[in-house]
Structure to design on (579 residues):
């Protein structure tokens, strides 16, 4: 793919990232609210309300409380949502309605740098939100440290993977309404069935196989292990899953954007 | 220098800023730009005129590297566009047809953030932004949001933004479309000042007044090709003459008269348009003998040339 030759991608992508950061800083108080309140609501509703009905969960051979089970899933969902929604709806608005990419492309910036800046920005939002949420969940005593801190670098790689997937949809949808399809066919099922609120072992066998293909399943496994203080070879498959996702989806996002914008 | 330019450019020995040779752009079944050749020289304002769909914007998009060329050759600043896109773009200022200012930022931030895309230092960006805001009379709105600006202010800001990197070539795609006369004249005045400073300008427009006022040389395009190339006045004299006589509700006697005299005219039914070299004597004769509903004589304009060459049917 000639689009990703080093010639087209320099550190100038940071200029695009800086532009998004500047806009974000103007509304940071609003942007900080969801990651502060969301885990609080979920932990109270599901953890406190449901755990009386659910009791303990058997995870990896040991009994853990329902709150302990779902808290890392909230972090994983948060990594997915921040990057995915930034690089779908928000990037689409900048590209299609605000013509920001058109204006940028008349400067020395290349399309590769613009899209990279956007995806790295999506990942940055995942990192910011994850850090805030991690702090809130820690107040409930649900994260083991120092292992839990590894969730922050994990949110970088997860953010790039989910952001790249989002950017691929942004490159192919005709209008903004069509994002409803990936949201309801991809994001919502993952939110519910990726071992987030109940173990995937509770699913029928065939559904477990499907769940194992989904990125959020692997992200939940990783955040859950790290929250429980598990750092061993069992993390390797999930980690590889995300490295490969980045290697595949990031160039594909740039390629698809090329097809859409360079005519 | 190429044969095609010899007629027009004895006085411009400099190497061209833009050199397009047999340039072609094809989208699927549509040939948007069909084998065109033209040169733009340093310090000149070069116009691209043409109805909608003539290929002006497609040509411009190729010049700033957004659209790969299908065939032919295109060099900007003597550099091949396909190989040197980034180097070329860092020396260009582009003013798009759509308003693509950044609505998430203020007026001043729009300029400062944009300068950073050219890798200017934050300090240099600030100084340059302030001086351009003064030049474009936008200083008092520097903290306003884009959505609070009038159409004329937005255009001036787009123009200021295109000047941030002190470009050697300014590309303007319909810079005054949709502006009120006051704003239009203000933009023209600024462009005149830039031209006087020696900036090379490529302007696409279908405002004929704008083209005659600003352009040293221009091409009229239609269906992707170039119909004519020349200086505005030369084109007028060459294609329609000096004067135009328009007669409302012409009668058959007048029609017979112009045919008998073998004059150049256009019959629109309710209006007869006669183009002529020196119209004074003819106008006296026509207004005495044949003028029932009203007739006027006026100077021929570029618009007459344009309509004569591209026809009157709608382009939608």
């Amino acid at each position: 793919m000639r689009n990703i030759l080093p010639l087209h991608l320099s550190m100038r992508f940071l200029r695009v990232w800086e532009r998004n950061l500047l806009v974000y800083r103007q509304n940071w108080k609003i942007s900080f609210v969801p990651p502060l309140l969301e885990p609080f609501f979920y932990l109270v509703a599901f953890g406190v309300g449901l755990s009386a009905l659910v009791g303990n969960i058997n995870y990896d051979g040991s009994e853990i409380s329902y709150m302990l089970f779902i808290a890392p899933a909230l972090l994983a969902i948060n990594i997915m949502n921040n990057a995915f929604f930034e690089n779908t709806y928000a990037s689409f608005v900048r590209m299609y309605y605000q013509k920001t990419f058109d204006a940028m492309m008349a400067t020395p910036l290349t399309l590769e740098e613009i899209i990279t800046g956007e995806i790295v920005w999506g990942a940055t939002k995942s990192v910011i939100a994850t850090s805030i949420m991690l702090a809130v969940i820690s107040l409930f005593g649900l994260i083991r440290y120092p292992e839990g801190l590894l969730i922050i670098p994990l949110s970088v790689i997860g953010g790039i993977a989910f952001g790249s997937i989002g950017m691929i949809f942004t490159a192919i949808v005709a209008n903004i309404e069509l994002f409803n399809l990936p949201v309801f066919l991809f994001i919502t099922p993952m939110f519910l069935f990726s071992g987030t609120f109940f173990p995937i072992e509770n699913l029928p066998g065939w559904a477990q196989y499907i769940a194992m293909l989904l990125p959020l399943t692997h992200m939940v496994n990783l955040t859950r292990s790290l929250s429980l203080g598990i750092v061993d070879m069992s993390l390797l498959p999930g980690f590889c899953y995300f490295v490969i996702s980045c290697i595949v989806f990031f160039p594909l996002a740039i390629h698809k954007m090329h097809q859409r914008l360079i005519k | 220098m190429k044969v095609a330019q010899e007629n027009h450019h004895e006085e411009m020995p400099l190497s061209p800023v833009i050199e397009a040779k047999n340039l072609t752009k094809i989208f699927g079944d549509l040939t948007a730009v069909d084998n065109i050749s033209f040169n733009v020289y340093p310090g000149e304002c070069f116009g691209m005129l043409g109805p909608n769909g003539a290929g002006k914007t497609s040509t411009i998009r190729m010049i700033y590297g957004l659209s790969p060329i299908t065939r032919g050759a295109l060099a900007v600043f003597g550099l091949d566009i396909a190989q040197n896109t980034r180097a070329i773009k860092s020396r260009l200022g582009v003013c798009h047809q759509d308003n693509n200012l950044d609505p998430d930022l203020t007026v001043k931030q729009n300029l400062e953030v944009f300068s950073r895309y050219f890798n200017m230092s934050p300090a240099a960006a600030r100084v340059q932004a302030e001086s351009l805001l003064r030049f474009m009379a936008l200083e008092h709105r520097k903290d306003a949001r884009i959505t609070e600006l009038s159409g004329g202010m937005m255009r001036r800001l787009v123009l200021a933004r295109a000047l941030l990197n002190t470009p050697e070539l300014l590309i303007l795609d319909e810079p005054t479309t949709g502006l009120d006369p006051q704003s239009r004249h203000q933009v023209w005045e600024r462009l005149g000042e830039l031209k006087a400073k020696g900036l090379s300008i490529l302007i696409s427009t279908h405002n004929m007044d704008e083209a005659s006022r600003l352009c040293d040389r221009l091409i009229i395009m239609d269906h992707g090709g170039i119909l004519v190339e020349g200086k505005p006045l030369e084109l007028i004299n060459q294609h329609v003459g000096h004067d135009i006589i328009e007669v409302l509700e012409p009668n058959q006697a007048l029609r017979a008269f112009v045919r008998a005299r073998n004059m150049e005219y256009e019959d629109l039914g309710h209006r007869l348009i006669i183009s002529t070299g020196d119209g004074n004597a003819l106008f006296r004769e026509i207004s005495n003998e044949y003028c029932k509903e009203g007739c006027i004589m006026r100077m021929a304009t570029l618009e007459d040339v344009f309509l004569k060459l591209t026809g009157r049917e709608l382009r939608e």
